Amino acid sequence: MNQALLRHPHFVSLEGGEGAGKTTAINALRDWLQAQGHEVVLTREPGGTPLAERIRALVLTPDAGIAGEPLTAEAELLLVFAARAQHLSEVIRPALQRGAFVISDRFTDSSYAYQGAGRGLDLQWIADLERRVVGLLPGLTLLLDVDVAIGRARANGRDLWPDRIETEQDDFFQRVRAQFRQRAQDDPLRFRLVDASQDQAGVAHAVTALLAQWMAQEATA
Ligand SMILES: Nc1ncnc2c1ncn2[C@@H]1O[C@H](COP(=O)(O)OP(=O)(O)OP(=O)(O)O)[C@@H](O)[C@H]1O
Ligand SMILES: [Mg+2]
After folding, report:
1. Most ligand 1 atoms within 8 A of CB, residue of 18, 24, 158 to mutate
2. In this structure, which residue's CA is closest to atom 13 in ligand 1?
3. Looking at the 3D structure of the chain, how many domains does it have?
4. What is the pLDDT of residues 131-187, one digit of tens each?
5. Which residues is 138 bridged to in the sheet?
6. Domain range spanning residue 13?
7. Is residue 1, in this structure, part of any structural domain at all?
8. With contact defined as beta carbons under 8 Å apart, do 20 and 196 qualify?
């Protein structure tokens, strides 16, 4: 299925549901890579460029910021891919070309999980968009996996107001989690599953150990 997609060894994504601890874990990865003397670009999706961040606001603001005109699932999918196209050309590809590590807080796997499994859109359509618009896979994807209720409780503790996605019900997030786990199972070369129910220090230790292990493996490949 993914034969047409290029995997870049310096491109790392973090995936997982709400409150899994992605944003927290990413900082540990950056510190570790920088200590090894690497240039690191931390970025996130949807977003990562000024224009893509405006698209993010459309996707995540309740009512897309426009009361009375709900964003359709199809429009949501195309907006996240529009943001991704911009992100790739403005940030990800140039950084990889100059030899930096790129660590992205979410990437295309989130489209399969949220717009595919969550919203019920055709996964094949997402795969087509991935091939035509993205063409690139992370070399390594760390999936921070945690019980939906635990993740949501963490996110609720953090946010004053829930975003458009966070207002969904638990069954939506159960489908999201199941899809992430399925994708990890289907592509064990790229994915590493991290038990995100551990405390923050435990998760930070686990993700840095997995990155170190993977870099060592790449160096001898
Ligand atoms: N392992 C952990 N144990 C307990 N609390 C945590 C842990 N990791 C993160 N948190 C806290 O939970 C909240 C959510 O963490 P974070 O923002 O990193 O999650 P996230 O995966 O980026 O979520 P989202 O998908 O909503 O952006 C934060 O307040 C953070 O401090
Ligand atoms: Mg986050």
Report:
1. 24
2. 154
3. 1
4. 999 999 999 999 999 999 999 999 888 887 889 999 899 999 999 999 999 999 999
5. 8
6. 6-220
7. no
8. yes
